[in-house]
Amino acid sequence: MKIISLNVGIKIDNSKKVGDFIKSQDPDFVALQEVIRHLDDSVYKMYRSKSDIERVISKKMPYYFFGPQWITNAMIMGGKMHRDFNGYVEQGNEIISKYPIVTATNEHYYKKYSLELEWNKFYTEDHPRSMIVVEYKLKNRKLQIINLHGLYSRNKKDSEKTINQTKFILEVVKRKKIPTIIVGDFNLFPETKSIKMLDKKFRNLIKENKIKSTRPKFNDGTDKGENVVDYIFINDQIKVNKFEVFNTTISDHLPLILDFDIK
């Protein structure tokens, strides 16, 4: 089987490119971060990534679970319009698959789902963060996929909040001793304590494959590319057939692709 993980990028009008890429790869599962679900018909077209991507791939991948983190219709910073959506949208994480979902939860570990209009404190306090936990039954085996978009920081370093984020992941995984894949944009560099805590419990495929970057080269004034912030972790019940970070400019993150079997 194959899973793709990708942060699709809220700042980029790229839904068709992302959908076409996923379709060309023909995965069994795709885990997306920074997905936008539009709630009003008036929302600008570039902020409709959830429905636009699903439209391209739904024929082969009809099952999905979306976990919103927050809702807004605009981002206001310093009393000025930073981003206008022209209607209400939710941002969150999504898993789309060829297989029916058995159970799925959207679990907030930092703040609660809320209306976010004032973004003056984003760089110091961030917005609500959650991860989705989706379980499948594939023949006689179970599979759990965890997808998250981690707490933001400019320097991608540790904080008490990122340590707590990792502790939350570890507690969730303890609930069920089944084959598990953890994916996402963690917003953390590999040398951080938060990532090393996960390294002790899971195989870090970024580390094993000595990946130097999960982002294309860019500098948009807020973030810089050519570094590692995206990861796939697996437990010992997952067999790796092939792992790669695909070089493409469809987003400000690169797709992580894992071909695997369940032991």
Characterise the protein shown here.
This protein is of the alpha+beta class and 263 residues long. It has a single domain (2-262), classed as Endonuclease/exonuclease/phosphatase (Deoxyribonuclease I, Chain A), CATH 3.60.10.10. 19% of the residues lie in helices and 40% in strands. It contains six helices and twelve strands. It has helices at 15-25, 49-57, 122-125, 160-174, 193-199, 205-208; strands at 2-7, 29-38, 63-77, 80-97, 103-110, 129-138, 141-149, 180-185, 203-204, 230-234, 238-245, 256-262. The strands form two sheets. It has a six-stranded mixed β-sheet with strand order 3-4-2-1-12-11. A six-stranded mixed β-sheet has the order 5-6-7-8-10-9. Strand 6 (129-138) and strand 7 (141-149) form a beta hairpin. Helix 1 (15-25) runs parallel beside helix 2 and helix 4 (160-174) packs parallel to helix 5. The radius of gyration is 17 Å and the shape is globular. The mean pLDDT is 96.
Q: How much β-strand is present in the residues?
A: 35-45%
Distance between the termini: 12 Å
- CATH superfamily, by name, is Endonuclease/exonuclease/phosphatase
The domain tally reads: 1
Order of helices and strands: EHEHEEEHEEHEHEHEEE
Helix content: 10-25%
Strand order of the largest sheet: 3-4-2-1-12-11
CATH architecture: 4-Layer Sandwich
Spans of at least 5 consecutive residues whose pLDDT stays below 50 are: none
What number is the mean pLDDT? 96
- Decide which structural class fits the backbone: alpha+beta
Total beta-strand segments? 12
- Over the alpha carbons, how many angstroms does the gyration radius reach? 17 Å
